[in-house]
Amino acid sequence: MRYKSHYATIMKLGTPIILGQLGNVILGFIDTIMVGHYSADALSAAGFVNNIFNLGILALIGFSYGATPVIGAFYGRKDVNNVGAAFKDSIYANTLCGTFIFLIYTLLYINIDNLGQPQELLPIMRPYFLTLLLTFPFITLFNSFKQFTDTVAATKTAMWVILIGNICNVILNYLFIYGKAGLPELGLTGAGIATLTARIIMTVMFMALIMGQKKFKEYKHGFRIRTTRKKDILHMFRIGTPLGLQMGMETASFSLASLLMGWLGATELAAFQVMCITGSLCFLIYYSIGAAACIRMSHFRGRNDWANVRNIANASLHIILFTAVVLSMGIAVFQHELAAIFTSDANIQIMFTTLLIPMLIYQISDGIQTNYANALRSIEVTKPLGIYAFISYICLALPVSYILGFVFDMGAIGVASGLPVGLTVAAILYMTRFRKEIKRHL
Q1: Average pLDDT, the chain
Q2: What percent of the chain has pLDDT over 70?
Q3: Per-residue exposure over 73-109, b if at least 16 CB sit within 10 Å of its own CB, e if not
Q4: How many domains does the chain have?
Q5: DSSP structural state of residue 227
Q6: Which residue range forms the structural domain that includes residue 202?
Q7: Sign of the Cα pseudo-torsion (367, 327, 252, 11, in order)
Q8: Distance of alpha carbon 194 from alpha carbon 134, whole angstroms
Q9: Could you say which of 34, 213, 218, 418 is the most buried, measured as most Cβ atoms within 10 Å of its Cβ?
Q10: How far apart are the C-alpha atoms of 174 and 172, rounded to whole Å?
């Protein structure tokens, strides 16, 4: 069976990535639960701010993914010096991109009063927004470290850093949100301080592991001797920028849907936040499997073995689709229990179960688009991703959300129904382009 060995390798590489991402999702669950039980206003405010920040954070993550095909091709050829050099280039490129995103979000903070959100939520939104803004430098460095270690097949390193950092975050949340151990009760601002502190801890821990562990020693020489060159940084930007735009625009469709939900009211906004947390669990599992396949494909691309690049993409798709079906069934069966975990507010619970309908509809499309976005990334065909994402998410998903929600007066479920449209179109476009590229090389 031509896929059997690839199934095993994808899961071997992908399981630590999945566990690390699950740690992030579980942290999101716990954050939402803690904030939701603190107050309904805090949950609504957190929902809006988190969705806005998810746009920037995922754009940064997407940009950092540009390092995978570059480092992976060198790793596949066992060129250790250029692996270290490419890692150094990625740190410079990610820092420049992170600085740009930081400046954009600073402008958003200054204009937060003009975003049409409920006035009673603004006093708790502002300090929470500011603390999350200060996490960007640490997210940028963390992304650079993670892409390097994942691409050289050391996926367990990031997994342990994420899991330990998340444990710290949960403990700090409890202390700062509720004012325990003699600390002041800070509510949502406390959750922001906990997140900032945890991200600092994770970045420092990651740096120490890369500098201290023997398995990374062979890459240090290339990292030290390489002088960063403008053409190499520009190459990272050529690959990474469309990836950042693709992930950013996909997230924008959710973030701007959150903005529309805020126009409908605090209950709709809070329910949509819970839906997004639940949906992110599925997405991050799909993306972890796709990322593992991308690493594997980049190694074979470095050896010019295009038949196996195609086979890995197919094997990854099989795993993702099976996972999507299982997760969708579980969420459908336990939807009321999920709602009760996040909030005791009956109105939010009812709205959440309603919003699950469009979320469950788009699971297959989300899995397919995730698989082929990673496949295109592995072969450095990233420019079309930004264009396709713009068509799918900005030109289609957002207008459909607005028209159904407000013109046809369908309310919250109308706004959420634009999301399956964008994801389905993206899945078709990405899949078609990857198959076209593979045919060129076979």
Answers
A1: 89
A2: 98
A3: bbbbeeebbbbbbbbbbbbebbeebbeebbeebeebe
A4: 1
A5: P
A6: 4-441
A7: negative
A8: 12
A9: 418
A10: 5
